[in-house]
Amino acid sequence: MVAARRPGSTFMASAVLAAFVVLTACGGGSTTPTNHVLVIDKSFDMKTADPQREFEVSGGIVAKALYSTLLTFKGSDSATPVPLVASSYTASSDAKTFTFKLRTDIKFSDGTPLTSADVAFSFNRLINIKGNPSFLLSGITVSAPDASTVVLTSSTPNPAIPFIIPNPALGIVNSKVVKAHGGTDQPGADKSDTAEAFLNTTSEGSGPYTLKSFSTTTEVDLTANPSYFGSQPFYNTVVIRNIQAPTQLIDIQKGTNEVAIDLSSDQAASLSGNTSLQVKASPGPNVFFLLANDNPKISKTTPNQHFQNAIRYSLDYASYVQLAGAGAIQTPGVVPSMFLGALTPADNAKFDLTKAKAELAASGISNPTVNLGFPSDFTLNGISFSTLAQKVQANLQAAGITVNLTGSPISTALADYRAGTEQLGLWLWGPDYPDPNDYLVFLPGQLVGLRAGWAAGSDPSLEALGVQASSSTNNTARGQLFQQIQRQLNTDGPFFPLIQPGQVVVATKGVTGADYNPTWTIDPAGVGG
Amino acid sequence: MIQPASAARHDLKPGWRLPLPSRPFVRFLARRLAALILLGVGITFVAFVLTELLPGDPAAANLGQRAIADPAAVQAFREHYGLDKPLPVQYVVYLQHLVQGDLGQSEQSHRSVRADLSEYVPATAELAVTSILIAYALGITLGMISAVRRNKLTDQVLRVVSLGGISMPTFWLALVALYVFFFKLGWVPGSGRLDPGILAPPHVTGLFTVDALLSGQFDVMTNAFQHLILPACVLAAYNVGLLTRFTRSAVLEVINNDYVQAARAKGLPERTVIMRHVLRAALPPIITVGGLAFANVMTGTVLVESIFAWPGIGQYAFHSATTLDLPAIMGVSLFVAVVYIVVNFTVDILYGIVDPRIRVA
After folding, report:
1. Are A172 and A119 in contact (CB under 8 A)?
2. Could you say which residues from 115 to 174 on chain B have a Cβ atom under 8 Å away from some Cβ of chain A?
């Protein structure tokens, strides 16, 4: 028999629910982690824990902790590669052959000794998977003449190799175990390699941590690797959580995490005076720039050299730095300030509205109107591209150039940018590896050059300088060549470097070593207490 | 002794008979299932066509700045996700796989969409169900109080409060709630489904509170519930306001009807009159609104999920859309369709339960 509901049951139910909520809430509060748990808040772009497939910021933090590389950098430095799994390395005078001698005392987390076969497997797997990081070893062949020697041979001179090798995507995996779980380093690995799912559950590396749990959306838990060949990390457990910046700001003040990575300069500024936190704001490695298309089929106006000069002088660079906030600087060239070959502030472009108007008059173009493409939904380091684009529009308007803002969501804006069909474009270049060779893409006929309609042969002297710089084995000479290239780019090229936004890392007081490194962002094993 | 079915039916009070399955009911069910299938196919078709019409390129959205310039990497990506085939072929292949329960592989997570949905849907469901329970309990109660005390101070206050619940932007409310109740007062934990370092309970339903209970991990269950409270309350705010206003309106429409006056004249206590005679008659429109509110919560939690770091279907849908992750977009679209159809179906059934005049049988 079904009874009719008792009168007042709704009131009762709500009262019980409310009481439950209130009681539980009052008894709430988070479980405090132990002293040896490091909690890092990061807005995830995580896709995988497979080192040979990851090339995202979050994935780099995880891979750095799980897998060792032949070479590495110390702390925030990215100018001097130092041995890690390799005990030493030599480069041939033509910068085509690099020979690495391996340490013989390194074991994977399961106790298996690490040999050159594992290095060769990892590198060839990276190449043949044809994934996002595969370009790092483009044109390079890997050989292992004996158990403790690895030789990388490049088809062209490549002095950047020692700067590429520390990338976590070149982390060395236990080849036997990975092969047993579907991994392969053979040609065709893009179709036949099936080890990713396994590597998302178990780490097969020799890094300071092992993988405890992995989620691309929630958190990644790491635990110290007792077999690690280096010093044991201070924190025996690391939790990397997927938290958005506004929530990171609240969490770090509450003390539920030790490190917050994604705070903008403005958010970091709101923490000034908080004695329980340490805020580090320094110029980041991303370079925001404006481009004017050199292809007359895209625009009759933008290829005009005087018109480009008018743009160069009409940009109020100081206001962009001010907009970007703490840590940001004006970038004098496309190579960021912390890399070899960077220009100095003395080379900064200068805002001069009078000159801008004079150049516009010299261009012979009256009342020019151009379209500016940009990713309207994209924000990096707390800086919205939409806001920047409005500033560009206002600056150019003051010089007499009308700009139509034609921003679109990044998934569609990227297509126009990469197709080289934007008249003006507002974009950024983030380093793939910390070497100026990564910035040769701005030259005519190269990746970004073509996006600005700058075809090969457009500037033979500059292109010759690029060839010379890319093959030089002397770092001092390379640095000077890259400076020369950028000065020429700043006068003749269709690019207008704007800013390097500040990179903010906030840590609780007492935490040490939470240093930003452009290659892997944060090294959990380097963080102490 | 087992009673025959007919005898059992005679024991039911006339107004509260169960809607036992009958041929019309079966036909109704069949129609709904057929609609579900047709709608599912239609949605997949529309999603496919719309995605193709977009000017973006999934390879460009998913490959890095270097890989996109490498024809081999682009080709490998297209082949892996079947994007190298003509759109009609892609669609037919998708439907073939769909029939076998294979929703494809996400370009973002590199996992099967089915695995993704099985992780994200329970997370959102746990939040949505808790939120809607709070909304129902508070909204209906406050709406009734407001109606009973029409135009008095209580009513005026509740109307203003309910208007506030509807008007306040959810993301703003979420940040304020997080700041006040987590940061300042420390009554509830902050973001995420669990505290850092606490591992999720063994997966059974995907609902952490339930799974922790099933595995006997009571500390994890408590922690999961504590994490649930704040986002669920924030998510409930809008629906509390909505249901309060609808309940008030629906109750006012029937509160002075003749049969209600007759009930009062018979000397029934006011509480009984309200609960038995007024509320029941006012329920159908409330059920309709409540059903839609639940569907909206299940499919529209992206802002709350983002602020509370809640790994639910809202965030998944957002990332899928911004990266043109077609298999994931299709999976989410199908999920949304199923939610709305199931909710509408449930609402229809509930109509039959609360109002015999519109029962199908």
Report:
1. yes
2. 119-120, 133-134, 137-138, 140-141
What residues of chain A, 402 to 421, have a C-beta less than 8 Å from chain B? 408-412, 414-416, 418
Q: Where are the beta strands (DSSP E) in A155-218?
A: 209-214
Pair of tokens at residue A454: 């700058």
For Cα atoms A62, A66, A70, give the angle at the middle one, nearest 5 degrees: 110
Radius of gyration of chain A (CA): 26
A251–chain B Cβ distance below 8 A for any pair: yes
Provide ipTM, 2 decimals.
0.73
Per-residue pLDDT 10s for chain B (361 aa) are 334 444 444 444 444 455 555 677 778 778 878 877 888 888 888 888 887 777 777 887 778 778 888 888 888 888 888 888 888 888 888 888 888 888 888 888 888 999 999 989 999 999 999 999 999 999 999 999 999 898 899 999 999 988 888 888 888 899 899 999 999 999 999 888 998 878 889 989 999 999 999 999 999 999 999 999 999 999 999 999 999 999 999 999 888 888 888 888 888 888 888 888 888 888 888 888 888 888 888 877 888 888 898 989 998 888 888 778 888 988 998 888 888 888 888 888 787 777 766 654 4
Three-state DSSP at B297 gives helix
Beta-carbon neighbour count of residue B5 at 10 Å? 8
Q: What is the nearest CA distance from B190 to chain A, expressed in angstroms?
A: 7
The reply to whether residue B11 touches residue A215, judged by beta carbons under 8 angstroms, is no
